Amino acid sequence: MIPDYQSLMRPVLVCAAAGETRIGDTVDKLADHLALTPEERAELLPSGKQTRFANRVNWAKAYLAKAGLVENTRRGYFRITPRGQAALADATATINNAYLDRFKEFQDFKAKVNGAEDAASASTATTVQGAAPCGAPEDSETPDEALRKAHAAITGALATDLLDRVRQATPAFFERLIVELLLAMGYGGTSEEAGRALGQSGDDGVDGVIDQDPLGVDQIFVQAKKYKDGNNIGAGAIRDFYGALSLKKAHKGIFVTTSAFSQPAIDTARGLGSRIVLIDGLQLSRLMIRYNVGCRDEEVLHLKKIDEDFFEP
């Protein structure tokens, strides 16, 4: 299990006590010392740009520096200070945020961060309260982990609201929504006629069709079922869709529902010769959020960091 960033503060100090050290080397040494598994070492943050363990080691070092227990020497390197040596010499001390709070430098750092939060709007401050460096309800989380957790909670609530609205809409609206979503995902090129909602008698069991390429050489047929939660799609509906595809001599289909698919339905789709992709209600709402269909960006938060190259001599 990957330790939280506060649990890593003392180990980071121990590494720094051996002399000036590079943060990347510290990450590797601590991973070896803690006997992290290959999976734990490789686990990435949602951004995909940094491993979770490296992120927590970096935050541990950053907070130690704010309290004056370590100091940055050059790009990517740091060393222990006399204050850090004294902390390390006290074997009974639990070096965490509460310990760092005894130092004025760390208190000043917290005051500046909290002051910046107070300057933001009340709603935004409430949302990112978990990102405060100390005193947050879950102090084991790094600030960016807390921010991502808050973002995931907001996104989850939005997905639920979107799905409720889609379930309340008419079947015709639902069919148009699916085609619009597929267009937003890049299917059909730029042609205005690339996607068409059918949904009328004589459509041979298909609710929509979308061109996979700008010229319409290859087409994907769509089946859309607007069901209530709990009214899951069974294997029979998948076989019927497969039959409709066969009548149109099509090899690709997308089956979308606002509910879910039973396990037999999933197994049937996998076993059929045609390529049938299943999208349930949860996946549908997540795709709508990702491609801004039925929702829009209200506020964009940019996470920034120091540009080390700018400060290079």
Structural class: alpha/beta
Fraction of helical residues: 40-55%
| Beta-strand share of residues | 5-15%
Query: What's the gyration radius in Å?
Result: 27 Å
- Give the terminus-to-terminus CA distance: 40 Å
* Strands in their spatial order, largest beta sheet: 4-5-6-7-8
Q: Give the H and E element order.
A: HEHHHEEHHHHHHEEEHEHEH
Q: What is the helix tally? A: 13
Largest sheet: number of strands, sense, barrel closure:
5 strands, mixed
C-alpha geometry: elongated
Q: Uncertain runs with pLDDT below 50, 5 residues or more?
A: 119-138, 199-205
Structure summary, number of beta strands: 8
Mean pLDDT: 82
Structural features, described:
By secondary structure, this protein is an alpha/beta fold. The strands form two sheets. Strands 4-5-6-7-8 form a five-stranded mixed sheet, with helices on both faces. Strands 1-3-2 form a three-stranded antiparallel sheet. Helix 9 packs across helix 13. About 9% of the residues have low confidence.
